[in-house]
C-alpha cells in the first residue's frame, strides 16, 4: 500500500477560530474522503485543537490497538462521558478492561439463541399492523424496533410508542449537540435555545435510564436477560458493577442497540434499492429459507447473502464513522512527531472507501465477501479493533440480519421522495427515509 511511514501534510482551508469544523459540519463524509490525498497522516484543526487523521489502514490499526501510546482520554472524551457516562464505548483503557471482563459473559455465543428469539418476537409485533400502501419513515420505524429489541434483551420489558418517540427525540437533540460540543469547547456554555434543548434532552435520557434500572426488580427474580447477567457479573476480585457503572453500561447498550443497528438496516434497504439484481437474489434466499415467516436463530446460517449484505452495508456506512484517540506520551506516528495530548481521529468510513483497499470501493457489492473478511489489518473496522472492539458485534450482525431478511421476505419497501440525507453525528444514520409498503404475495 505504499510507503506510509513518511507521508504527512497539513490540510489547507484552516479558518480562524473554527479551523476545519465548518467543512466537517457541512460535508463531513466528503471532507474525510478528501484527506488521503494529503498523506497517510493528515493534520486538521478542530476549533482551537490540532488533530491528526489516520488515513492509512496500518496507521489506524496502530492507533486503535496500542493503548500504551493512544487512549480514550482528553477534553473531548470528558464531554462525551458527561453525556453518555463512562461505559464500554467511552471508558479509558484500564477502566474498559475491567468493565469488559465483567460484561463479557453476558455476550457469550450460547446466549445468542435467546437474544435472537427476542428479536424475532419484536419484529413480528412491530410489523403486525403494517398495511399495504402505507407510507412510513423507515428511519423512525427501525429505531423504534431496535430500541424495543434492546430494552427487551436488557430488561425483558416493553416501551410504549409515546416513550419510544420521546427517547428518539432526546437522542436526536443530544447526539447532534454532543458532536458540536466535542469540536467547539465553549459552545455549550452559551445561553442559547439550542443549549437549553440539549440540556433538557440529556436530562430526559439520563432519567429514562435510571427509571428503567429502578423498575427492573430485585436480582434473581427469574429474568433471563442481559440485565440479570450484568447484575450477577463479577470482576477478577469479586466486585459487581456499581450503580453508576450499571447506569453507564445500560446507556451505552441502549444507544448501540438502538441507533447503530437501525441505521444499518435502513442503509441496507437504501443500497438494495440501487441494486435490483441483489435485491432479487436476496428475496429468493428469504423465500427459500423463511417462506414468509419472521427469521429465527436456526435460519441465520442459511441467510448467507443477507449476511453479506449486512457486512457490505457496514463497510459503506459504518455507524461508528469517526472515533478518537489521544496520545498519552510524546510519540511518533507515520514518521511524524506527536506531542502528549495530540488528538488522532480514525474514520472507518474513510478507510472502507479507499480504492487501494477495496476494489471499486464506492460500489455496493455483497459478493466481495464471498472470500471472507479482509486479512489486512485496519481495512474493515465497523466494530472497531483491538481491546475496545465492540462487545456486541455478534448481537448486532444477527439483529440486522434477522430484521432485514424478515422485512424483505414479506414487504416491498419502495423509497419515495428525494435522495437520502445523511446525518453524521456520533452515529452515521439516514436523517429520514420514507418508503411505501407493498405486501408481497404469500408463499404457498
UniProtKB/TrEMBL annotation:
GO MF terms, alphabetically ordered: heme binding; iron ion binding; monooxygenase activity; oxidoreductase activity, acting on paired donors, with incorporation or reduction of molecular oxygen
Enzyme class name: oxidoreductase
Xref: SUPFAM superfamilies: Cytochrome P450
Gene3D superfamilies: Cytochrome P450
Keywords: Heme, Iron, Metal-binding, Monooxygenase, Oxidoreductase
Pfam families, per database record: p450
Names of the cofactor(s): heme
InterPro entries membership: Cyt_P450 (IPR001128), Cyt_P450_CS (IPR017972), Cyt_P450_E_grp-I (IPR002401), Cyt_P450_sf (IPR036396), Cytochrome_P450_Monoox (IPR050196)
Protein's recorded name: Cyclooctatin synthase
Organism: Actinacidiphila bryophytorum
Amino acid at each position: 500500500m505504499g510507503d506510509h511511514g513518511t507521508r504527512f501534510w497539513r490540510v489547507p482551508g484552516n479558518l480562524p477560530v473554527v479551523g476545519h469544523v465548518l467543512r466537517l459540519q457541512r460535508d463531513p463524509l466528503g471532507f474525510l474522503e478528501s484527506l488521503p490525498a494529503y498523506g497517510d497522516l493528515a493534520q486538521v484543526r478542530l476549533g482551537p485543537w490540532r488533530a491528526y487523521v489516520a488515513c492509512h489502514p496500518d496507521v489506524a490499526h496502530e492507533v486503535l490497538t496500542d493503548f500504551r501510546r493512544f487512549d480514550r482520554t482528553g477534553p473531548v472524551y470528558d464531554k462525551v462521558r458527561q453525556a453518555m457516562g463512562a461505559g464500554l464505548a467511552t471508558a479509558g483503557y484500564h477502566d474498559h478492561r475491567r468493565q469488559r471482563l465483567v460484561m463479557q459473559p453476558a455476550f457469550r455465543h450460547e446466549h445468542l439463541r435467546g437474544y435472537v428469539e427476542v428479536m424475532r418476537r419484536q419484529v413480528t409485533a412491530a410489523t403486525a399492523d403494517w398495511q399495504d400502501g402505507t407510507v412510513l419513515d423507515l428511519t423512525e420505524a427501525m429505531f423504534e424496533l431496535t430500541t424495543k429489541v434492546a430494552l427487551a434483551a436488557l430488561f425483558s420489558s416493553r416501551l410504549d410508542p409515546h416513550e419510544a418517540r420521546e427517547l428518539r427525540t432526546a437522542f436526536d437533540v443530544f447526539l447532534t449537540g454532543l458532536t458540536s460540543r466535542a469540536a467547539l469547547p465553549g459552545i455549550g456554555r452559551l445561553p442559547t435555545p439550542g443549549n437549553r434543548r440539549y440540556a433538557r434532552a440529556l436530562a430526559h435520557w439520563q432519567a429514562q435510564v435510571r427509571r428503567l434500572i429502578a423498575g427492573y426488580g430485585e436480582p434473581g427474580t427469574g429474568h433471563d436477560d442481559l440485565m440479570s447477567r450484568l447484575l450477577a457479573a463479577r470482576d477478577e476480585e469479586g466486585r459487581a458493577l456499581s450503580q453508576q457503572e450499571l447506569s453507564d453500561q445500560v446507556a451505552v447498550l441502549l444507544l448501540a442497540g438502538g441507533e447503530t443497528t437501525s441505521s444499518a438496516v435502513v442503509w441496507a434497504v437504501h443500497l438494495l434499492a440501487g441494486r435490483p439484481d441483489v435485491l432479487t437474489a436476496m428475496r429468493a434466499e428469504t423465500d427459500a429459507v423463511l417462506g414468509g415467516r419472521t427469521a429465527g436463530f436456526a435460519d441465520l446460517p442459511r441467510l448467507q447473502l443477507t449476511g453479506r449484505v449486512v457486512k457490505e452495508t457496514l463497510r459503506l456506512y459504518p455507524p461508528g464513522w469517526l472515533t478518537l484517540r489521544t496520545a498519552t506520551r510524546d510519540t511518533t506516528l507515520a514518521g511524524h512527531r506527536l506531542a502528549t495530548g495530540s488528538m488522532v481521529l480514525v474514520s472507518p468510513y474513510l478507510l472502507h472507501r479507499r480504492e487501494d483497499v477495496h476494489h471499486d470501493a464506492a460500489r455496493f457489492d455483497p459478493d466481495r465477501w464471498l472470500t471472507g473478511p479482509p486479512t489486512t489489518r485496519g481495512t474493515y473496522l465497523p466494530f472497531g479493533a483491538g481491546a475496545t472492539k465492540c462487545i456486541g458485534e455478534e448481537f448486532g450482525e444477527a439483529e440486522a440480519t434477522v430484521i432485514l431478511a424478515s422485512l424483505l421476505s414479506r414487504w416491498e419497501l419502495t423509497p419515495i421522495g428525494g435522495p437520502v440525507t445523511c446525518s453524521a453525528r456520533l452515529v452515521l444514520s439516514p436523517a429520514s427515509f420514507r418508503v411505501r409498503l407493498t405486501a408481497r404475495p404469500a408463499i404457498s
